[in-house]
Design brief:
198 residues, mainly alpha, 2 domains, 7 helices, rod-shaped
Length: 198
């Protein structure tokens, strides 16, 4: 595969386009990570619920343990305080669920912010680069094999008429006769369009 043109101006355009493509990906990754970090800050209420629920659960559990030692009513009081401990556990679970939801939203939002722009880039930029690389590689193989007549024929089928008449008054006839100057000029045009030197 030949990724870049032999002609300086086209090479510079291709290089700038490639750098911009890489910059596009880096920008969206950077933005996605920033958005994810911003979303993850929304875990604070969930963390507060977990902390409050943990303190509540531990306080009620400690009180229930101490209440068991009270004669006659200790078991009943301990059971009632155990319900407070269960409420604390419920708060902890709610906080953890909220934290997990925020983390999932942050992750999926980051993925979407990277995948969609990169997919757009792959659908627009990559096919152009691959088409150039394949075309340039095929033209280079023909040039290196000395198949200038095939390259000249390609020019006859692709070039506008005004460009063909600049090469010769009858470029097709000259190509059929095997005129070396016309064949070389036509082949050079095809190679130039492919980004190669003759």
């Amino acid at each position: 595969m030949k990724w870049y043109s032999d002609h300086p101006a086209r090479f510079a355009r291709q290089l700038v386009a490639d750098v911009l493509a890489v910059g596009w990906v880096v920008f969206w990754v950077w933005l996605a990570l920033g958005v994810r970090d911003g979303v993850l800050e929304l875990r604070a209420p969930g963390n507060g619920l977990v902390d409050a629920g943990t303190r509540m659960r531990d306080s009620f559990a400690g009180a229930a343990d101490q209440a068991r030692g009270v004669p006659v009513v200790g078991g009943a009081v301990s059971g009632a305080l155990g319900e407070g401990s269960n409420a604390g556990t419920t708060l902890v679970d709610a906080g953890r669920s909220q934290i997990e939801l925020v983390e999932q939203i942050g992750q999926w939002l980051a993925v979407a912010l990277v995948v969609l722009p990169v997919l757009f880039l792959l659908l627009v930029w990559l096919p152009l680069r691959l088409r150039f690389a394949r075309g340039a590689a095929a033209a280079a193989r023909l040039r290196d094999a000395g198949a200038l007549d095939v390259l000249a024929l390609r020019a006859l089928t692709e070039l506008p008429l005004r460009q063909l008449t600049r090469i010769s008054d009858d470029p097709a006839g000259a190509w059929r006769r095997g005129d070396p100057e016309v064949v070389a000029a036509l082949a050079a045009r095809t190679l130039a369009r492919a980004g190669l030197r003759a």
